[in-house]
Design a protein that fits this description.
mainly alpha; 79% helix; globular
């Protein structure tokens, strides 16, 4: 059974529970792998620093660039090329802004902790970027979505190479998810 068919059978509440469950698993995996792979787990916290300039120039600005590219792709290509089976619509369409904020924050934190904070720091930029794209499995059969998620993955991975700051990549990722979630929420 296709993922989109499974999602259609779920209520909005069940879909939200599944999203929270999957993100919880990613968080647990991040913690477990950091304990397993880092000699000193406290070294992991060196990747969290408050730098307002980085947050703006490498977090917010790239986040809005990614959104602009996604919107351009949506404008250029017919919906069938970037439709993810209606999953994002189901997640964001009827959700209040505060719910969209919470989901975008949860997803950006858990995914960046795993892919940049653990995988990229241990296995490198290429491995983390490719694995990030592969985790978004529903995009693999949609070339436009696949190219988009690969672009996002490599771009955010490169931001981490430049800044070595997980808070910055979390802000970039959050900006993308939150703004696109709001756009989905208010689409006609």
């Amino acid at each position: 059974m296709k993922q989109s068919e499974i999602v259609k059978q779920l209520t909005d509440k069940e879909l939200t529970k599944q999203l929270i469950f999957s993100q919880s698993l990613l968080l647990i995996l991040s913690i477990f792998l950091s304990i397993l792979l880092f000699d000193n787990v406290s070294d992991w916290f060196d990747y969290f620093s408050i730098d307002i300039n980085d947050f703006i120039y490498y977090g917010l600005v790239p986040g809005f660039i990614i959104v602009a590219v996604d919107l351009l792709l949506m404008y250029i290509f017919p919906k069938r090329y970037y439709d993810d089976g209606g999953i994002n619509d189901r997640i964001f369409k009827n959700r209040p802004i505060s719910g969209t904020f919470s989901i975008a924050l949860m997803v950006s934190i858990t995914e960046e902790l795993l892919f940049r904070g653990v995988i990229q720091t241990v296995f490198g930029y290429l491995a983390a970027s490719i694995l990030f794209a592969l985790v978004h499995i529903r995009y693999l059969k949609k070339p436009v979505l696949l190219i988009s998620v690969l672009f996002v993955s490599f771009y955010i991975g490169y931001i981490f190479v430049l800044t070595e700051n997980l808070l910055t990549t979390i802000i970039a990722h959050f900006t993308v998810d939150f703004v696109l979630g709001i756009i989905i929420r208010f689409q006609k």
